[in-house]
Specification:
alpha/beta
């Protein structure tokens, strides 16, 4: 299994490029992040090449403030297709520079005055309109449900709703981002469901619950999660998107990457 570290969520007071070496020193050769617009993409490219690292994924966005105003909170559920396409094109160009193979999209917050059904219809229309772009560029569009505790107006917080859309779209370059933390917060996570949805899942995010800290600090049985993912030959990148429960170095001490050829992840906290 392949693991990546969300570089935005750790070493938060440090320059982005400077933190990459520390992430590599702690066993992660792959990173992901949130926004690309606020980063020195050329600097990141140079540093990951120097460190022999790679970027797995980041979020779709645009340098155009008007575009982000139109789709920032409603990326897939609005009728703002021209703005979405512009953001997709900009983000794909950035992904190609960094050789990243995945881009993350949120569905969006519920829009006042538009029915739930119409917004879901917009989600389908928008994905259908851009899926060929992702196929052509051989980049995967990842769609992420987010829990209502942290984003109270999110249109589709439930994993099944988004998984059904991915299944119905039926495109190998449109996948589910299964965030175990978010689904646990929704009281909707089970290992069985995670494994069942692996065929339509392109990326997995992990953090323990409650607290959103590293595995081993909350109530999620991550030993079983990893054992089942390994047993079922999970090919997704698994993103560590957690807030360290203490300083980063002590947090990293709780995690250990094995050097075995199968890249299995071991947790020393269990």
């Amino acid at each position: 299994m392949k693991f990546s570290m969300c570089a935005d969520i750790i070493y938060q007071n440090m320059d982005f490029c400077e933190k990459l070496a520390l992430i590599k020193d702690n066993g992660f050769s792959t990173v992901e992040f949130w926004q690309w617009q606020n980063k020195d993409i050329c600097g990141i490219k140079s540093e990951i090449q120097r460190l022999d690292m790679n970027v797995s994924a980041f979020c779709i966005g645009s340098n155009d403030e008007k575009v982000m105003s139109a789709i920032g909170n409603n990326m897939l559920n609005s009728a703002n297709l021209p703005e979405l396409k512009q953001a997709v094109f900009e983000s794909i160009e950035t992904a190609k520079k960094l050789e990243a193979k995945e881009l993350i999209a949120t569905v969006g917050d519920s829009i006042d005055g538009i029915s739930f059904e119409k917004q879901v219809e917009n989600v389908y229309k928008n994905i259908e309109a851009v899926k060929n772009i992702f196929e052509t560029e051989k980049i995967t569009l990842l769609i992420e449900p987010i829990n209502l505790k942290e984003r109270p107006n999110y249109l589709l917080p439930n994993i099944k709703s988004v998984a059904d859309i991915v299944k119905n779209i039926g495109c190998k370059n449109v996948k589910l981002l299964y965030d175990i933390y978010h689904q646990t917060a929704e009281n909707d996570f089970s290992v069985e469901n995670l494994i069942e949805l692996l065929p339509v899942t392109g990326h997995i995010h992990i953090a323990d619950y409650p607290g959103r800290h590293e595995p081993g600090t909350g109530n999620i049985d991550y030993r079983t999660v990893f054992e089942e993912l390994y047993k079922n030959k999970c090919k997704c990148t698994i993103g560590m998107e957690y807030i360290p429960s203490e300083d980063e170095e002590k947090s990293f001490e709780k995690l250990r990457l094995s050097s075995s050829k199968n890249h299995r992840y071991e947790l020393t906290t269990f």
